[in-house]
Design goal:
Layout lengths: L2 H31 L2 E2 L12 H13 L12 E4 L4 H12 L9 E7 L8 E3 L4 E4 L2 E4 L2 H8 L5 E2 L2 H5 L8 H7 L4 E7 L4 H14 L5 E6 L8 H16 L3 H6 L1
Parallel strand pairs: 1-5, 2-9, 3-8, 3-9, 4-7
Antiparallel strand pairs: 4-8, 5-6
Helix pairs in contact: 4-7
Length: 248
């Protein structure tokens, strides 16, 4: 085989390899984009029947009046227990979303079952509840991941996590058209929280986002003591007093 023939063969072979790689990669990307995280906690934490779940959520919301809030709504703090325990409490926050419009909801919560170093940002696909599917904002998720080496996607951290999943039925009942970026963390240090906050602000661009901070403020306290503890936390949040908040 002449030198020219060898070069022609090499170019043809490499072109075939690259074409195969591109087609295969596109297939993988499309398959991943269509990947669905199915509801893990429908049944134990909330109704697994679409009709019963919608009636439950709407029943919670109907018991709450929508308030006229000063300023622009950018974040909510929500509990993540079973609906029988915290559904009505969550409704007080979610009721304020009616009539609002957001491009993307960033769901931020703790990882209860899988240790997470940094932040696990769910990268692509869909999340499904009995009320339907919600698309992951892969563009924004990718932008956040690109901001720091400690941000990554660990699917195992999200598979059995309840803190974010339980927020979706309320969001589906109050918002019309939105995407999500689920993020779970274990690091609550001031340095890491600032790092993640900066990444989100830098990555969001012109998108109108809502942040859902999923946290149970306290566990198993008598009602009076729980109100006292929560009152201190609310005061610190209103005053942006991070040092005092961390002490409590």
């Amino acid at each position: 085989m002449s030198k020219e023939s060898k070069m022609c063969f090499t170019r043809t072979f490499l072109s075939f390899v690259f074409l195969f790689f591109c087609i295969f990669s596109q297939g993988v990307a499309e398959a991943y984009e269509s990947k669905v995280r199915r509801a893990r906690w429908s049944g134990p934490f909330y109704d697994d029947s679409p009709k019963a779940l919608r009636e439950t959520v709407e029943g919670f919301l109907k018991k709450v009046d929508q308030e006229k809030l000063p300023g622009k709504l950018i974040a909510l703090i929500l509990p993540h227990a079973g609906y029988v325990y915290s559904g009505q409490v969550a409704a007080y926050a979610y009721r304020q979303l009616e009539g609002e419009d957001f491009d993307t909801v960033i769901l931020l919560g703790p990882s209860h079952r899988v240790p997470v170093r940094g932040a696990s940002v769910y990268a692509q696909g869909w999340w499904k509840t009995p009320l339907g599917k919600v698309k992951v904002d892969s563009e924004l998720a990718g932008e956040i991941i690109s901001k720091h080496q400690s941000f990554h996607f660990d699917e195992k951290a999200h598979k059995d996590e309840h803190s974010l999943e339980v927020q979706l039925p309320f969001l589906q009942a109050t918002l019309k058209d939105f995407e999500i970026v689920p993020i779970v963390v274990n690091d609550s240090s001031e340095e890491f929280c600032q790092l993640l906050a900066d990444a989100i602000v830098s990555a969001k661009g012109k998108k109108k986002i809502l942040i859902i901070a999923s946290t149970d403020m306290s566990h198993f306290h008598p009602y009076g003591k729980a109100c006292l503890i929560d009152g201190v936390a609310i005061r610190d949040l209103e005053n942006f007093n991070l040092d005092s908040l961390r002490k409590h």
